[in-house]
Design goal:
Its EC number is 2.3.-.-. It comes from Streptomyces bacillaris. This is GNAT family N-acetyltransferase. This protein has 184 residues and is of the alpha+beta class. It has one domain: Gcn5-related N-acetyltransferase (GNAT) (Aminopeptidase), CATH 3.40.630. The chain has five helices and seven strands, in the order βαααβββαβαββ. Strands 1-2-3-4-5-7-6 form a seven-stranded mixed beta sheet, with helices on both faces.
């Protein structure tokens, strides 16, 4: 799936182990994901297999974000369907340091959001972002998500429970980022 002219979203591959290695060295990514905090090939392979299992079982759609020019993976975005029976799904994303600041996270979020709302017909999408993470919040708002509130002690991050700001987007919200969210 194209995320603009410079990046594509694709299923995870075993060739993505260098991305898992770089992400495992990030001080934050292993705290909020299932990326192994201590890298080993076995742990990285298990991570990739979990992504395949999530897709195969219908738990969600995990994608590697890959730079087109050199086919280098630089991040991840996933659409998680655990709450789909209630008419909502969550999106989570992360980017390694070497991929930040290029607009790729915004493009990936815009792509997955449009696909989920238009093609899959999901009524509500939501993101959970720590209040201090202003870069991630700015990306969400730029794509059309609205901050809806603060969930105190919502999620375990590392060894503590942390607050999360919730951002939502409905398929009835109308234009997002200058484009219609749903096809009329």
């Amino acid at each position: 799936m194209s995320a603009g002219p410079d990046f594509v979203l694709r299923p995870w591959e075993m060739s993505d182990l260098p991305l898992v290695r770089e992400a495992s060295q990030d001080p934050y990514i292993p705290l909020i994901t299932t990326i192994p905090a201590r890298y080993s090939d076995a742990a990285a392979e298990a991570f990739v297999r979990r992504q395949w299992e999530r897709a195969a079982t219908g738990a969600g759609y995990p994608f590697a974000i890959v730079r087109s020019r050199d086919r280098r993976p630089v991040g991840s975005i996933g659409l998680w369907l655990r709450e789909l029976p209630e008419g909502r799904a969550s999106i989570g994303y992360w980017m390694v340091a070497s991929g930040r600041g290029q607009g790729v996270t915004r493009a990936a979020l815009r792509t997955v959001t449009s696909w989920a709302l238009r093609d899959l017909g999901i009524p509500r999408l939501q993101l959970f972002i720590e209040p201090w993470n202003t870069a991630s919040a700015r990306i969400a708002v730029d794509v059309g998500y609205r901050r809806e509130g603060l969930l105190r002690g919502w999620q375990r991050v590392g060894d503590e429970r942390r607050d999360m700001a919730v951002y939502g987007l409905l398929n009835t919200d109308g234009p997002a980022d200058g484009r219609a969210v749903t096809a009329d």
